[in-house]
Amino acid sequence: MKYFKIFEIAYLVVAIVAIVELVRVWSTDRTRAYIMLFFAIISIGMFFFRRYYRKRFSDRQNKK
């Protein structure tokens, strides 16, 4: 179960790095900034998706 939590945190780290890069290149390279925005949104979505299913899986195993 710890591996699932580590991957959740990894998605947050990717999102933070993408947001920092987004802010850094916004005024110089809009195309790259939009790509970073896309990665940030996907990473945050994957974080919540993974967290939801990890908790669901954990609850299912605790009921047995």
From TrEMBL:
Keywords: Membrane, Transmembrane, Transmembrane helix
Domain of life: Bacteria
Protein name, entry field: Uncharacterized protein
Membrane-spanning ranges: 9-27, 33-53
